[in-house]
Write a structure and sequence with these properties.
UDP-N-acetylmuramoyl-L-alanine:D-glutamate ligase; ten-stranded mixed β-sheet; seven-stranded parallel β-sheet; 21 helices; 40% helix; 15% strand
């Protein structure tokens, strides 16, 4: 029986290792190239039945070899095809050379290709392995194809997209469809690569799944199968205390809305009890808007310590609307390593005091979840943020190891990372999730899962995914209040 590989994400290096291991196991690598090229041809015929001509652009490596197989298969199907090659076609080696020899069409230099009306470009130039900026010849061709409105079908990944980081290497084709093999690569899910791929088809070319698993690192696409077994399902014996008590810290008067969003989301996301801890001047504001969520006055360190000693509190959210400064730092340190989602102002409060935060949660089980957006990540991890050689996954993993925290590196391509090197890339968030207050809702959802005893990394991953699902249920035009109310509708079925 095949092992499931649908959530695996292989880097280009890992995919190359899978190809090599497959060949060593006795599977002819040319057979894999044949299957890949024919899969691309089938996709081209399926998606572009009205094409007047397919222009197959072939690069100098195995991606180009896939292209020569594609051109042969399209010709056998009766399509009109032209083939253009990059650089010296006589320098091809191995399977790519053999694929060229089997192709019945005489290849022409790439510079001779003139995009015409009715063309479809099959981009087999570089694929996922490109790590340097594309040459000027390709930049000009990409611009010409785009200006003339010629659709592009990409082989493995649109040329110009870094398969490891998802970044654009100078310029890149914008494909309407991409055909990749065995698994997706980080560049298919990270931005801007994801926006350049169009619809992605993953085709199994016959590499044994055991080999794919053997070379795979710890990066996955975030999905319920990875954490659903840890999400508690209420039973007949369940009561509110078994579902955890979440505490959300409020900011001062006039800045209380963000905490209430977190608290409301936490309640809907399954916490048995939720309390907003507020300073005296914010009590009236919060009381006027809270019903099922409880309210407790916490003004200073003495009040916080007393509350921690007397109340059964399971997890905490600090940051939304709280204010930046010493009070935030003191409150975090007073929590003494308890499960905590640190968001927004809470993160920024430690930007010049990083060692205090890192030391407070160093060692032992991971109890801290940090939820920075791009700017907050740069303030807390400036060296990582400025390293152009690192992709978003690598930055998030490095930050997680540095802090012994689960990192939720937010964005349209949110990455969730653990100190042990695991990383999940999230892809289910709809565009309308980018609205004021949505991050506050996410903090509350993760906090609710922490309060129910879900480990920090899985709580973060589940919270991010369910946040996207809540947005889909709320629909376009939603507000953060709508999102908070939709936060828990699918938690029970996932159990």
């Amino acid at each position: 029986m095949k092992q499931e590989i649908s959530n695996l994400i292989l880097t280009p290096t890992e995919m190359a290792a899978a190809d090599a291991s497959s060949a060593q196991s006795g599977i002819p690598s040319l057979d894999l190239m044949e299957r890949a090229g024919r899969a691309v041809a089938a996709s081209a015929l399926r998606h572009f039945p009205g094409a007047r001509r397919f222009a197959v652009l072939c690069g100098p490596g195995n991606n180009g070899g896939d292209g020569y197989v594609t051109a042969r298969a399209l010709t056998e199907a009766g399509a009109k095809v032209v083939v253009h090659y990059l650089w010296d076609v006589n320098a091809l080696k191995g399977d790519a050379k053999r694929a060229l020899e089997l192709c019945p069409l005489p290849p022409q230099r790439l510079e001779l290709y003139e995009p015409a009306r009715g063309d479809v470009v099959v981009d087999a130039l570089f694929g996922a392995g490109l790590a340097r900026e594309v040459p000027e010849t390709i930049v000009n061709l990409i611009r010409c194809v785009e200006q003339r409105g010629v659709p592009v079908l990409a082989v493995d990944l649109p040329s110009g997209v870094c398969g490891k980081r998802g970044t654009m290497l100078g310029a890149a084709f914008r494909a309407s469809h991409t055909v990749t093999f065995m698994t997706r690569k980080p560049g298919h899910l990270l931005l801007p690569g994801r926006s350049l791929c169009g619809d992605i088809e993953v085709f199994d070319i016959g590499i044994p799944h055991r080999i794919i698993h053997s070379v795979a690192g710890q990066t996955r696409e975030n999905a319920p199968d990875l954490w659903r077994h840890l999400i508690p399902t209420p039973g007949e014996e369940t009561h509110k205390y078994r579902r955890g008590h979440l505490a959300v810290f409020s900011g001062p008067a006039g800045k209380t809305g963000a905490a209430r969003l977190s608290a409301t989301a936490g309640l809907h996301a399954g916490a048995g009890l939720v309390t907003v801890a507020a300073p005296p001047d914010a009590m009236a504001d919060n009381a006027a808007h809270l019903t099922a969520v409880m309210l407790h006055e916490v003004n200073d360190m003495d009040a916080l310590r007393e509350w921690l000693e007397t109340a059964k509190l399971s997890a905490f959210v600090l940051g939304p609307g709280f204010g930046v400064g010493k009070k935030a730092r003191d409150f975090v340190l007073a929590l003494d390593g308890r499960p905590l989602v640190l968001d927004a102002d809470g993160i920024t409060s430690f930007s010049n005091h990083r060692a205090l935060l890192f030391d407070a949660y160093a060692g032992g089980a991971t109890q801290l979840v940090l939820t920075p957006h791009e700017g907050e990540f740069g303030r807390l991890f400036p060296d990582l943020a400025d390293d152009a050689e690192l992709g978003k996954v690598e930055k998030a993993v490095a930050a997680a190891k540095l802090t012994n925290a689960a990192i939720v590196y937010k964005g349209a391509d949110t990455v969730i990372a653990a100190p042990d090197g695991r990383a999940f890339i999230n892809s289910n968030a709809p565009p309308w999730l980018a609205t004021a207050g949505s991050g506050d809702v996410l903090a509350g959802m993760i906090g609710a899962l922490l309060a129910q005893g879900v480990p920090a990394f899985e709580a973060a991953a589940a919270g991010v995914y369910l946040h996207g699902e809540a947005a889909r249920r709320a629909g376009p035009g939603m507000t953060a209040e709508d999102l908070a109310k939709a936060a828990g509708a699918k938690l029970a079925p996932l159990g």
